[in-house]
Amino acid sequence: MTDVVTKPEKGDNSYDVAIVGAGIIGCSLAFTLGKQGRRVLLLERDLSEPDRIVGELLQPGGVQALEKLGLRDCLEDIDAIPVYGYEVIYNGEGVTIPYPPGPDGKAPEGRAFHHGKFIMKLREAARSAPNVTIVETTAREIIKDESSGQVLGVICKKKGCDEFGYYFASLTVSADGYASNFRKRCIDKKPQVRSHFFALELKDAKLPSPGYGHVVIGNNPPVLLYQIGTHDTRALIDMPHAPSAASGGIRGHLTNVVLPDLPACIQPSFKEALKAERFPSMPNSFLPATTNNTPGMMLLGDAMNMRHPLTGGGMTVAFNDVVLIGDLLSPENIPDLADTELVLVQLSRFHWERKSLSSVINILAQALYALFAANDNKLRTLQRGCFRYFQRGGQCIDGPVGLLAGITHQPMVLFFHFFAVAFYSIYILFASLSPANWPVAFFSSFGVFYKACVVIFPYIFSEAKS
Fold first, then answer.
1. Transmembrane region positions (predicted)?
2. Between 39 and 441, whose confidence is greater?
3. 394: domain range?
4. CA torsion through residues 374, 375, 380, 384, sign
5. Which residue, of 285, 307, 334, is where some domain finishes?
């Protein structure tokens, strides 16, 4: 840690806001604050087009937030594919779950795309915004006044350069993703890795329901399929544990376990994609949000809060966070970002006000993953009940998919539908047995209900904390 005991003087290396990470959060926040008249420095280790396997599906709630930010054009000219909802395939049987229509009667749309192409458009927008400076450099450490605990900026090192660069800011934002270098400077929590996604890119795949994201569930962990370009479809295979070498490793698992579970129309392109030399992967982590209370510093995006990417809610949370924090930190609310006490008050408000959306998406993602990756009989009962619940149609799909899409910001709606699924699962359990076996089902129903509580309540409690 580098000690700096004096306030920085205004100069060429001094800004109102320094943002570490030119990704989803960093670019949109830089664009927003720059338009407000703040001097913004955006730092990024590598400004070439990134190659990532997540952050490729933007739910309708994210598209709406992008419009509020004035960044809707970033979805143009990147071969983005409209998304109208989901197709859930359970043991070979499918149910279509379209996004519910809005007040105007029109069904909202999401977008799917190559992550790197979208990022490059966001960087162009940030670069074109007034008062924004983008520097390609690696942020190594924060500058901190040890006597007050105030973060004053960041120390950086450019590639191929031996000298360090010192950048000062009234507010430093860590938006450097799931593997954040600065998270530990603010909080003690560490991300909990629940599984990994292994990715394939399918060419000219024939999806059962074009224009819909697909979730394949059954006796194995879920598989996600969604089109990200005219000729490209992303396949994400969830693996809680790495397959053993004796079973053929990753390639053997994909060939012998995953492939047979897929719809027949997908299998030819999936087989072809299995010829790839490697299968990129990403950890699927859970990190509940913590109030930003470090003077002069703020965590945002995956550096602050993560959920399982099964529901594709990460970018929707991110853009809505930028809408909210942009308002809370606006010059109308905080004339000078050097007013640390006022900034901390607004960051506390941010923590609680964002929960109407973020809590819904966080809890839904973790709960659905537990059901879709069911690994015991009670969870499999809930999994089957969830699918049959969707088959009922009407509010049984409009309610849940409205939450998933990021357009319904009501935690009680999530609570209602989750326990409606639990009770419907118990009903199906009884209906599947002869009356002679109902006494056994009676006792089993208590186990199923208890399992439902074990699945959801820990995440509800985590969201209630500061």
1. 15-33, 413-434, 440-461
2. 39
3. 374-465
4. positive
5. 285
